[in-house]
Structure prediction request, 611 residues.
Amino acid sequence: MAQPPILSWEKLGLQQGGRWLFGGPPSPGIDLHVGPRDRLALIGRNGAGKTTLFRLIADRIEADRGIRKVRPGTRIVMLEQDPDFTGHARLMDWALAGEHPPAVHEVEAIAGQLGIDLTRACEGASGGERRRAAIARALAQAPDLLLMDEPTNHLDLAAIEWLEDWLTRYKGAFVVISHDRTFLKRLTSATLWLDRGALRRKEVGFGGYEAWEEAVYAEEARAAEKMDAKLKLEAHWLERGVTARRKRNQGRLEKLWQMRAQRAAMISGAGTAKLKLATEEDFKSKSVIVAEGISKSYGGRAIIRPLTLRIQRGDRIGVVGANGAGKTTLLKMLTGELAPDTGTVTIARTLTGVTIDQQRSLMAADRTVRQVLAEGGDWIDVAGGRKHVQGYLKEFLFDPGVVDMKVGVLSGGEKSRLLLAREFAKASNLLVLDEPTNDLDLETLDLLQEVIADYEGTVLIVSHDRDFLDRTVTLTLGLDGSGRVDVVAGGYEDWVAKRREPAAAQARPARAEAAPSPGSAATDAPAAPPPPRRAAKLSFKDQRDYDLLPARIEELDAAIAKGEALLGDPDLFARDPQRFAAISNGIATARAEKDTAEERWLELAELVEGA
Prediction:
């Protein structure tokens, strides 16, 4: 039996800037109910009102209409995206000044596990230190309902995994806004979707959100056609392009897997034979950055141990590791900003770089969007061509009407998206992205993935977003904090798999200790990174899957098409909501199985090619 909610909003409505943000007439308002053990993902585009809804739940602002009910004794704590540390000397002073001041020992215990020294001065503290202090303060207040706004921003992988473990054991309820797909998939069991002023809820975690979203939009499109209102809806679809973008990105993922296989051949001992199609000179001519035995130490501590690496034109390089492991140091050495202690870095003379870093304060708040993009004009130069500024804004998911708005009124995510639009317009063949996913919504992440995939130059990405790395990079440089740099073909999960290998597997036979091939990357470890999963001969099970999966994929395609045809009945939901839900869930299940089957078949195809 379902337990009564600990918090609810009924018929909630709020105006902002003279318009209804949500719940405006003729809508009766939005309803929200949070149970005592709910694990909710709050999804919505930048500017949809997610953070505002959090503030209404926490009773920090007043609504224009609606009734808020809270179970007596319920403690609601909000972990803000950008908390204000003004007026506090030390991080500890700020941590003990919350609405429900926590006990000192509770704050210290959590801070110790997060690895943050709260005696540090607030002024000058890094984004990661401030984020850890905010988490320590929020969790130490023992909330019954925890509201988390982008909790993984500025956290390294170890801290993110610690937070995931804490939330798994947490006995209360939480609602989370996050761009981190992996974080959401691991923790949430239901989804709130804030879209065009309405709030929907589905009892499925974020893993099932995209299928639900597509089903809703497909149903809306069919209903709009029946009502002869298609043109009105098309404006929304042109702005979002949800299904089309997702399909394009699936094609790009297949291309990415092929690029990873090629890169694996270059950095493995066995890869030398695969490079015979191109001469060593041809291979070297494609190199844009060549690092030979580079290292860096500070105060006697090795930050980067001797590393040899050849980066080619078109590479997508991900750099991962804990805060302080040396990611920024490595990036600066590779781009020529910092000289190594030993070794050399050779950079192609034709390399022209653009850097997009974590600082979003580069754009003055009093400037208009038009001024930021086009210096006040109507046209912008983009990759050698000219585009109208309003058309270019649509490519980055903006309503063209924002062109004359002040930057200061944009949300944090919209400012980040505008920065991306400005920087991607510049002519370059090297793109350096430092934590590019902070403050971005999920659709903008899909867009960023698309832009990176289509970028003709080389990309260097520092990120803690595991899913984003798995979707974008061909090569991962993993720093473990000891100065060692693992060079692994693939993304974050490939690096994790590499680290899990026993030490004996890393010390490969003498063949791996030979001089590296033209595309190899060596560290101080005796072995080159192992090639991706390959076999001289498929096992019986692998061969069976390789033969049968194409037919199964066709069956699943047919099942999906049949389900979508049934959902084409605009009266189905009103007539039989349970059947509608069953068909929708069946489609989602079939799509998930199809994705798994396609990935498995592509994996086996790579094995066959490498046999």
